[in-house]
Amino acid sequence: MNLRIESIQAVETLQEKCISSYNELLDTLKDGMSEADIKLILISLMKKKGIHSYWYDIGIMVLINENRFRDMQKKDYVLKCPSETVVLKKGNPIFIDFHPMDENGIWSDFSSMCIFKPSDDDKDKVSFLELIYSIHMEGIRSLNSTMTFADVFRWYQTKYKEYNMEIEDARHTVGHTVDSGKKNDKYGNDKRLFLDSINRESISGYILAIEPGVYKFSNKKMLVGRFEDCVYIPQSGVPVILGRKNKLPLYIN
């Protein structure tokens, strides 16, 4: 697949707007804010950056606490919508997933998460995010144009098994292609190609949304983690991460 440079640049611009809004949000988070409250703030921040449309069924997903994070594996979109009753408390993980679309219909897909005001008892949550982010980035650096979609899935699955972790995803994938326009084609089928265990197509030339989410039980405590970046896979050369320039905060005091 060959992409126009304008499309690659458009995805990068969208990713930068997501990251900027995410960073701005972190400065405003307070105890007692609901998932719905946080989504409204993010929608407003994105509007100021010229973003008015979203390609996914849930434009901006906000999930607070471990149990809500695991709702991502469910296919019922109502369950995954930001709740007005689930509120932010000290020690909670907060996961935010952006799905913006620009005026030309180009998509991007970005997510990040952190621990809100962790206590000493929450250090393992922060350490877990450190590990998941490290694996996320290691996997991206390992990508190359000779790999298939299934190869990418197997790389992450193998790595997670080393740590006794389970993939957390409704389709049991670690990502998908980035497209444009409506999510579904005229026949109602999802246009995305998924990074799953069966797709033998080459990833060469695609922009991939890499989003391996996982959970693990440790000392009777659930630990969760998920990060997402859009990555362009050139036919030759190294993969290009679009938008993310630096590691984002993994906890907020």
TrEMBL record:
It comes from the Bacteria. Transmembrane segments: none annotated. Residues 21-233 form the Peptidase M24 domain. This is Peptidase M24 domain-containing protein.
